[in-house]
Design a protein that fits this description.
single chain, 469 residues, alpha/beta, Rossmann fold, 9-stranded mixed β-sheet, 6-stranded parallel β-sheet, 17 helices, 20% strand, globular
Length: 469
């Protein structure tokens, strides 16, 4: 079986969000299962040149009145034999960014068309698409009589790639397909992928159920309910080689589940690093986009009570100005309790995972979430709202059985968040209890192995259905 995995970002070549982590890890896990798999991505202006070579081949695509030619480049994912192909067009991709470009819709459409040509020439059995940027590939492949079958993964349904109908007029997509892939007078790239792909998956079982409801379906719940028999939730994993507290070079002291003492040393160094005093209180980490979806409105609602708790809070991230300003003000008002770093810094993120006691994720919705998985890997106990992948990975600690790896709440309210934090703090104040929760978290297996086997089963199911057709 030959598989082409198509993503707009792939770690470490280009990373903006969690999609890059998935695209840089899942193909390697699938390769280890014996799958013949390649990765395809755009050659963004910001791509890290890690052994990239020009193959000398080109791929041409023709929109109405406009032809684009893409150079085909190639490298490999680090520490693997997975080939990564990159399609380069300097006219479309000459800015040092992945998504912040002048016309992302046109760029994604042209890439999807060129990628479809590449896929159709490559004797692939499965083309695995990811998010709206690649959704139109399913339509293009179908239009040219695709030799391969398609799976599309939804990493966040809120982002759909909606553009004016004028884009359809230059796309080369046949007119009798327009109505099905439109939302009102606009083209909807994700909807196109959901309708035209053979199967659909999202990145956790709970999120797969949630998006079939009007509350979480972002206007596409009807489409997803119609395709419920072709929709499956597969939990994301993490690269446990890349994220390993026993070897992580970003930490001051390495540690593992058999030698957790090093975590306390990292906590003290982390406090020094961000300017917080050493106390016996719990240190809570928040690494996030500072937006409502991530539960920042809940935190804002309890901020006065929050600073009265026996905790310290380290915030890392950017987002809405009101939340950036809120944390900056709190840092000035409470310099012994709040450290706000309004930026993103991978080195500091790793130090937060390794040095904090708790990790806060009170999300309104969360397709899968990777932060809680990284946190547990490093013995940092998650405090979450039970939604999407958070509900599938974080289990409430039960003091009677000593089972569970974190703390959570269901109702999206400031009161429930505050009660959950107090519950976690109470557990933290009992060293025996806390040590057990930390150990439970660290012993969870969130590697890609199980997820990769589930994806392989989906690929096989798609081909089996194809054979019966």
């Amino acid at each position: 079986m030959r598989v082409l995995f198509v993503s707009y970002e792939v770690y470490p070549l280009a990373k903006v969000g969690g999609l890059a982590d998935v695209a840089g890890s899942l193909p390697k896990a699938l390769k280890e299962l014996g799958l013949d798999i390649d990765v395809l991505m755009p050659f963004h202006g910001s791509v890290q040149n890690i052994g990239i070579e020009n193959t000398g081949r080109t791929v041409k695509t023709r929109f109405i009145k406009k032809e684009y030619e893409f150079e085909l480049h190639r490298t490999k994912l680090p520490s693997s034999e997975v080939s990564v192909y990159l399609l380069k067009n300097d006219e479309l991709m000459n800015v040092p960014d992945v998504y912040n470009v002048s016309d992302l819709g046109l760029q994604a459409m042209a890439f999807s068309d060129a990628a479809s040509v590449f896929a159709s020439e490559g004797s692939y059995d499965i083309v695995h698409l990811n998010d709206w940027h690649t959704g139109l590939m399913a339509v293009y492949l179908d239009q040219i009589g695709k030799p391969a079958r398609t799976l599309i993964s939804i990493h966040n349904l809120a982002y759909q790639g909606i553009y004016p109908e004028s884009y359809l007029r230059i796309s080369g997509i046949e007119k009798d397909r327009w109505e099905k892939i439109s939302s009102g007078d606009n083209i909807n790239c994700l909807k196109a992928g959901l309708i035209a792909s053979d199967m659909i998956n999202t990145v956790s079982p709970t999120y797969a159920k949630e998006i079939q409801t009007s509350e979480y379906g972002a206007g596409l719940d009807g489409v997803l309910r119609e395709r419920k028999d072709d929709l499956i939730g597969i939990l994301n994993g993490i690269d446990t080689t890349e994220y390993d507290p026993a070897k992580d070079r970003h930490l001051w002291v390495n540690f593992d589940s058999k030698n957790v003492e090093g975590k306390a040393v990292n906590k003290k160094y982390l406090q020094d690093f961000v300017g917080l005093p050493h106390t016996g209180n719990a240190v809570i980490g928040l690494i996030s986009r500072l937006v409502d979806q991530k539960g920042l409105d809940l935190i804002a609602a309890i901020k006065e009570d929050l600073i009265e708790l026996p905790i310290q809070l380290i915030v890392l991230g950017t987002g809405e100005k009101k939340y950036e300003s809120m944390f900056e003000r709190l840092q000035v008002e409470c310099p012994d309790k709040i450290a706000a770093k309004i930026t993103f810094n991978l080195d500091l993120a790793q130090k937060i995972y390794g040095g904090c006691d708790m990790f806060l994720m009170p999300s309104r919705y969360e397709p899968c979430g990777l932060g809680q998985l990284f946190a547990m890997r490093y013995g940092t106990v998650p405090v979450v709202r039970f939604t999407g992948g958070l509900a599938d990975t974080v289990k409430e600690f039960d003091p009677s059985s000593f089972e569970g790896n974190g703390f959570g709440f269901y109702d999206y309210s400031p009161e429930e968040l505050f009660k959950t934090l107090k519950r976690a703090i109470k557990a933290y104040e009992d060293p025996r209890t806390w040590s057990r929760i930390v150990l439970n978290a660290m012993e969870e297996d969130f590697s890609w192995k199980a997820s990769a086997r589930n994806y392989l089963a989906v690929y096989e199911k798609i081909l089996e259905v194809k054979g019966d057709a």
